């Protein structure tokens, strides 16, 4: 393990910045967040259909039933991407459409993704396919979900079904989006579906998710897949609140371990980090030490070579071992009680810093992205990396038919400068995907949090590109981030 960096900011490069010619400019979405049409063409419920009906689990009781109606409006949405000049679109496939209840293949569900891929290719937009962005078939959860090893095998079967349908036309296939969230928000903290709050269940789920990744990669390679294969992980930059305090430093190490290295080390080094195993060694699931779920051969599968690493970054954390004031952040949180998603971390707390925050209450810390990319490069020698998600929610309003969102534009600019700083430091970053193309169902926060560069008027489903979309389109068209933010936007 390397020494943790402390919180000194990295100076971001200023002026006009020219990105590499082949740098990919994209936007990302996820199936449950945009598709709607939850009971159409054979789709059966996912854990999010169920969880969104649990009282208090989602702000305002929102569900993904209708979302952005993308299932029906897909051709227009692809046309919009083309208008914005996006080079690539990262989307996910709804498992319960393709294999309803986790069972046999449903061609009607696959057809949607065949059409989507065709539409993208016709528009000269490179598809980036994510197999799992959190919508596990409820029937598989009823059989134990990600705490059941069999789910990993079902996932590999699902991966093959998707590959059979579109694998020859999709240049990049990633297995999981953010397994940290699936495992620890889903099975330890209860913030996300399936909403279980069972301590070490998150660790068990994490292992089975990683195993699913490994099995799927092996199965796709067996089929002779030519696509780049990989996974998207979400990272924090865990800094000790007080770098001089050994207890805070140790708390930051634990969070870095559970959030970052628990996933990075098995995927890129074929082993779990020793300190995390030590910290969690006495935690049990179903009466047995959780580590017993790791079987011989699992890590060889999980750590098989990948071609790309997707990096999602929103913010870092100042971590402390001591109680910290938790001032009200003014954000509407779900009412259902939840627990810490970090099993075995005891009294660890997160301290606020003197940083601006987004509508989610997340700190704006672009230099963390530079530090993260440089650290990944230095510590892990990863395959080529893409920033597969970065973006911000702000309270947008339509005024005279226009959505001006200077805060999102500033957020975007700062994070692109952070990416550029990492490129300058020699890190191999091939592209950037804005989260998100459209305002959408922001999980436990429902529709109140708008992350899109395109505004969605939900009652009419009208799409209105925000000023940030025009700004991003200008950068995508020229490959240049203008020094003067007043310049460069497409009309
Ligand atoms: C990420 C998720 C994505 C979206 C953003 C804001 O954790 O992958 O679906 O919710 O956060």
Record keyword descriptors for this entry.
alpha/beta; globular; 15 helices; eight-stranded parallel β-barrel; binds beta-D-fucopyranose; 491 residues; disordered N terminus
What does this structure look like?
- Helices cover 37% and strands 15% of the residues.
- The chain has 491 residues and is α/β, with parallel strands linked by helices.
- Strand 15 and strand 16 (462-465) form a beta hairpin.
- Helix 7 (149-166) runs parallel beside helix 9 and helix 14 runs parallel beside helix 15 (467-478).
- 54% of the residues are buried.
- Residues 1-7 have low confidence and may be disordered.
- Beta-D-fucopyranose (FCB) binds at residues 30, 33, 177-178, 181, 234, 312, 389, 435, 442-443, 451.
- The site of beta-D-fucopyranose has 12 residues, from loops.
| Strand order of the biggest β-sheet | 2-3-4-5-6-10-13-14
Low-confidence stretches: 1-7
Mean pLDDT, rounded to whole units?
97
End-to-end Cα distance: 48 Å
Helix content: 25-40%
In short:
This protein has helices at residues 31-34, 47-51, 70-83, 95-98, 107-122, 138-142, 149-166, 179-189, 201-222, 246-269, 274-280, 298-302, 366-380, 406-424, 467-478; strands at residues 17-18, 24-28, 88-92, 126-132, 172-177, 228-235, 238-240, 284-285, 288-289, 308-313, 317-320, 349-351, 385-390, 429-435, 454-457, 462-465, 480-481. It has 491 residues and is an alpha/beta fold. α3 (70-83) runs parallel beside α5.
């Amino acid at each position: 393990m390397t020494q943790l960096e402390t919180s000194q900011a990295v100076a971001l490069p200023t002026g006009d910045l020219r990105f590499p010619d082949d740098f990919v400019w994209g936007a990302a979405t996820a199936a449950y967040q945009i598709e709607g049409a939850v009971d159409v063409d054979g789709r059966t419920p996912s854990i999010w259909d169920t969880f969104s009906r649990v009282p208090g689990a989602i702000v305002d009781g929102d569900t993904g039933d209708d979302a952005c109606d993308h299932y029906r409006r897909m051709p227009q949405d692809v046309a919009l991407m083309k208008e914005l000049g996006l080079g690539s679109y990262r989307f996910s496939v709804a498992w319960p459409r393709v294999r309803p209840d986790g069972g046999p293949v449903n061609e009607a569900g696959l057809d949607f993704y065949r059409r989507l891929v065709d539409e993208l290719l016709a528009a000269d937009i490179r598809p980036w396919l994510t197999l799992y962005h959190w919508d596990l078939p409820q029937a598989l959860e009823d059989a134990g979900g990600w705490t059941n090893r069999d789910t990993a095998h079902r996932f590999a079967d699902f991966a093959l079904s998707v590959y059979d349908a579109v694998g020859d036309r999709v240049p990049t296939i990633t297995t999981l989006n953010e397994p940290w969230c699936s495992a620890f928000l889903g099975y330890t903290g209860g913030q996300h579906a399936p909403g279980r709050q069972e301590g070490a269940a998150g660790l068990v789920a994490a292992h089975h998710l990683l195993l699913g990744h490994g099995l799927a990669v092996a199965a796709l390679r067996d089929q002779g897949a030519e696509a780049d294969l990989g996974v998207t992980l979400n990272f924090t930059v865990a800094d000790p609140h007080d770098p001089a305090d050994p207890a805070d430093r140790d708390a930051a190490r634990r969070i870095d371990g559970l959030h970052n290295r628990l996933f990075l080390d098995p995927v890129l080094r074929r082993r779990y980090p020793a300190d995390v195993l030590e910290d969690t060694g006495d935690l049990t699931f179903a009466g047995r030490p959780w580590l017993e779920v790791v079987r011989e051969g699992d890590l060889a599968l999980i750590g098989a070579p990948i071609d790309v690493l997707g990096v999602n970054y929103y913010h870092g954390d100042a971590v402390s071992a001591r109680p910290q004031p938790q001032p009200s952040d003014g954000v509407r949180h779900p009412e259902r009680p939840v627990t810490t998603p970090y099993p075995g971390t005891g009294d660890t707390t997160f301290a606020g810093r003197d940083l601006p925050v987004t509508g989610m209450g997340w700190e704006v810390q672009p230099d963390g992205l530079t530090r993260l990319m440089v650290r990944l490069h230095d510590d892990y020698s990863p395959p080529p990396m893409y920033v597969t998600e970065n973006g911000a929610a702000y309270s947008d309003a339509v005024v005279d038919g226009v959505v001006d969102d200077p805060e999102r534009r500033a957020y975007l600019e700062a994070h692109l400068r952070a990416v550029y700083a990492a490129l300058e430091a020699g890190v191999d970053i091939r592209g950037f995907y804005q989260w998100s193309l459209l305002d959408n169902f922001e999980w436990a926060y429902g529709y109140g949090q708008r992350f899109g560069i395109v505004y969605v008027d939900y009652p009419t489903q009208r799409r209105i590109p925000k000023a940030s979309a025009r700004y991003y389109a200008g950068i995508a068209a020229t490959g240049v981030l203008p020094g003067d933010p007043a310049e460069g936007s497409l009309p």
